Amino acid sequence: MKKYFSSYWIKSAFYTILQRFSMTLLGFISYLILIRSLSTAEMGAWAIFLAVTSIFEISKTNLLKNAHIRFVSIQEDHTVKASIASSAFLINAAMNIAVIILIIFGADWLGRVFNSVNDLPDMLRWFIPGLLGMIIFSHLEAIQQSFLDFKGPFAGNFVRQLLFFSAVCAHAIWKIPFSLKHLAMYQSISIWIGTGVLFLSSRKYLLYKFNYTKQWLKEIVQYGGFIFSSGFVGQLFANIDQLMTATFLRASDVAYYNAAGRINQVIDIPSYAASDIMFPKVAQASQGEENGDRKVRYLYERMVAVLLSFTIPAAIFVIIFPHFVITIIAGSNEYAPAALILQIYMVMGIMRPMQNQSANLLNSIGRPGLCLLINAVSLVVNLGINYACLVHFGFYGAAIGTLITCIVGSIAWYIIMKKLIGANMKSIFVYMIDVYKLIYTKGMGLFQKVVLKKDNAGS
Predict the structure, then answer these.
(1) Domain boundaries in the chain?
(2) CA separation (Å) from 80 to 14, 44, 213, 424?
(3) Which tens digit of pLDDT belongs to each residue from 403-414?
(4) pLDDT tens-digit readout, 53-62
(5) Helices (H), 179-248
(6) C-alpha span between 182 and 52 (Å, rounded)
(7) Dihedral, CA atoms, 413, 418, 423, 424, nearest 10 degrees?
């Protein structure tokens, strides 16, 4: 089994996890500054803006990146690869332009829906240049990952996040008052500069040919359409607690959910990084006639086991000390009501690696329709349960409703994986024990070397 974890895994894991970690870390530090500088109402509006924009950005990127990677990774003809890339770019541009039109005519309506009339519309309009930049940014990112190159995407995303982080720090250092629309503008500027970095690292893969074909447009839409819809539903599901809280309660209440969510993102770093790494490998393994199912099952079980090995201890710590963690993050007791939300999120965080990898696996083996169906049913169920819980429990209703849906969804995902690829929870636990044994062995070896070095120095 060691042959499956070649140098590809080492290099791709290094850059992908580093990208996820650096983006989350810089975003987290930026958040620490903003939460100490903005009111809860402003933090709530900023959280809604990020939720709305990320739902589209991540869903669209998953559509094009996954379709691009899947089709290019199994092609040898460079002319065909160029046709795939050109067709993906055309769809990419059309989708972003459609969203820009929606913002121009519908930003005020969104502000009313989410009880943020004074802030959300202006932020969305200032983000229009960023949406134009994302057309090129996401295209170049998909091209590099289709060639199993994760170094360039890391550099582009790192620069993008670093520039926004620097702008926030500049406001804090020179005590310049924060403006929400300026934060949206900084997002747009950082996207364009990050795109420039991506272009420099993408040049060796670019053929500079725009020869889209109707056939590949159709192929990408048929395959990617399911992934986009599934990704859109999945992202809506991930943010539904904040969006429903803003709609049925107050936008300022979203600030508490966002505080807990930011901590939860740190726990999710390995899970999302693993999805990026595993997708092309599972896509290739599923194409093999010999032992294809066995390879796919092994990759799935092993990855889930590795993720749970790190997620469970971190989640348990936060569950035991939620007030301590939330106070450290917010810098005051003002966000103490978010402690229970944080505990609930951590319980869901333990279940999320299996769900994320299951959805990613369905997409990579060419079953995006099934993934869409599962996510759509989960969303509908979550909407109903969240509404009932919001009415019954009030402020904590969305968190409780999402937890109930997550538990039911985890059971459903496991049953589907067991039936589809023969996934076995016992195997996952065995692999988890292997991970802990490896960590213990390496740790003891390092400890003995340190002790021996001290003894030799003393003698």
Answers:
(1) 2-448
(2) 30, 46, 10, 39
(3) 999 999 999 999
(4) 988 887 787 6
(5) 180-202, 214-248
(6) 17
(7) 100
